[in-house]
Design goal:
Elements: H1 6-15, H2 40-46, H3 53-62, H4 64-71, E1 78-82, H5 88-97, E2 102-108, H6 109-115, H7 122-126, E3 133-138, E4 149-155, H8 171-181, E5 182-193, H9 212-221, E6 225-230, E7 255-261
Parallel strand pairs: 1-2, 1-4, 2-3, 4-5
Antiparallel strand pairs: 5-7, 6-7
Helix pairs in contact: 2-5
Length: 267
């Protein structure tokens, strides 16, 4: 059975532009996410036939093209997917960075022991379609990679590192280790579910959400510069009171996408 090329359709839709002259007053600005240009390497990674059909269906809600474009993922880049889960982004990174690039799927040992099975992403690393993927098993906060990186990426996981089953991990050390692993000018991209402003770490274990201000404060304390936010995953209709796994909100939560950069003068 051929896999649906939903992601390619979405990318082509974003890239399309009107050629007819506009008559009358300009239309009001769109209420949803603003369309962005998707680089060719990222567009190709989304339409890659090796991707599971279920992953392509999820693209509608996760907007991976816009997210990777915001992160600045280029061919030849060295990327760490920190806590990759089932490898949704790992596969996309693999094709986006290409044969000259490298993707390190970084799995904390704490998660492997809790699941009592090997990481799901191991199957991706063994798949000949993804030869540039390497799995790293290590305990947090001992984040380290064999080479300097262009990007460290973590999606919907930062709050987990504050949870009891992860230790909790010492995030001040984790973030400093991420800083150390990056090349000068490298990017640290953090995506997570939004908790109420001022709630701090209150909801990390119960609702699996985190106050974005906590993330910004912790990451910049490690030496990073906050470069900006993509609003592609924001959802003002999320009341932020429900567990992110609840059927009524799952896949539709209000999420922040924060981009931090290691100063180009840092070593």
């Amino acid at each position: 059975m051929r896999k649906p090329f939903l992601s390619l359709v979405a990318v082509l839709g974003l890239a399309a532009c009107a050629t007819e002259p506009m008559l009358g007053p300009p239309p009001p600005p769109p209420s949803g996410p603003v369309a962005v240009s998707i680089p060719a390497n990222i567009a190709a990674s989304l339409s890659d036939p090796s991707r599971p059909a279920a992953d392509m269906v999820r693209d509608r809600d996760r907007h991976p093209g816009e997210v990777l474009a915001f992160a600045g993922v280029r061919p030849g880049a060295k990327v760490a997917d920190l806590i990759p889960g089932g490898g949704y982004f790992t596969r996309i990174f693999s094709k986006a960075v290409g044969p000259r690039g490298r993707v390190y799927a970084y799995v904390p040992d704490e998660l492997t022991k809790a699941a009592k099975r090997e990481p799901t992403v191991n199957a991706i690393a063994r798949d000949p379609a993804y030869p540039n993927v390497t799995v790293i098993l290590n305990t947090l906060p001992n984040f380290a990679t064999p080479e300097k990186l262009d990007l460290v990426f973590t999606a919907q996981n930062y709050h987990d590192m504050h949870d009891k089953f992860m230790g909790p991990a010492n995030l001040s050390v984790v973030n400093r280790q991420v800083f150390k692993a990056l090349k000068p000018g490298g990017v640290y991209l953090v995506i997570d579910h939004v908790a109420d402003a001022g709630s701090g770490l209150r909801d990390t274990e119960t609702l699996h959400r985190i106050d974005p201000a906590v993330v910004k404060a912790e990451v910049t304390a490690a030496g990073f510069i906050f470069e900006g936010e993509s609003r592609v995953l924001r959802n003002s209709n999320d009341p932020r009171k429900a567990n992110v796994y609840d059927a009524g909100i799952r896949g539709k939560t209000d999420q922040f996408v924060y981009k931090f950069r290691k100063p180009s003068t840092a070593r």
